[in-house]
Structure prediction request, 313 residues.
Amino acid sequence: MDFSGEGGAEGGADMDFGEGGGEGEGGADMDFGEGGGEGEGGADMDFAEGGGEGEGGGDAVGGDLIGDLAGGGETVDDTATDRPTRTREAREEIFAVQQIYALRINRVEISPSFAATLNDPFVSHPAIAIGLNYWWTNVLAIGANFLWYEGLENESDLNFFVRRSTRLAVPVSAYQFGAHLAFTYVPLYGKFAMFNEFIFQWDAYIVGGVGIMRTRPVPVVDPEIRNFDYDIRVAFNLGVGIRVFVSRWLAVFAEFRDYMYLEQLEALQVALGEDRSNPQTWTQGDPAFTNNVTVHLGLTFFFPFEFEYQLPR
Prediction:
């Protein structure tokens, strides 16, 4: 079919709606463009102005007419996609065994901290403390700590109101200081990520040892007559703690430690007569086993700041 003024068609069902006609041979050639075109073969279709020229399968081989119309007849070259160009090779040093972030062996640790008692509702025993450890292996250390209580303690109002309302007294004690030797063992260490950005190294440790505490009973039963001086008690300590490294020489730590000792408590009975002024009647006959459960929060400084690995990679 030819609706133009010129052009001819041979063969089956050639169609040309353009001006200037076209020339085609074969099956179902269609041309809607101006200027006609020339096609030969099966299913050539040309809707562009100025026509086109195809032969055989031509522009719409296999009947993919919609795809050609949508793509404007242009072929996308997948191989031409831009890809990032590697400018340098990534090199990472890989160790057979990952090295520990902060070595402790042959280093000295100084740990100032603040301590508070957790298990005494009648008297609070806050203290300032400092610890000193020497690590002779990477997981074992020997050291000492010192706690100062006097001037920081405070008796709660609970004991006072109980005494006034019920005429019952709970014997309490005051601490002056504590000094303790201890061994530290680190069975666990590792690292964790925070906010998907920061990685912190940590270790958990067990501590235990023996020392002294200087304590005295607080006169609450007969405070007008009785007065007590500080005395030395042998104390054992056992605790656990966790340390998080901020750098290779600085860490923060939290520690729970139980200081256990035999306390001489005030007697609950008041002797009559002259015995009321006898100091031997002011205390109980048998000492009481006392637990001073304390939490320490503080910093740890490792000296020297720098260290060198001696182990092979």
In short: The CA atoms of residues 180 and 211 lie 4 Å apart. The chain has a mean pLDDT of 77.
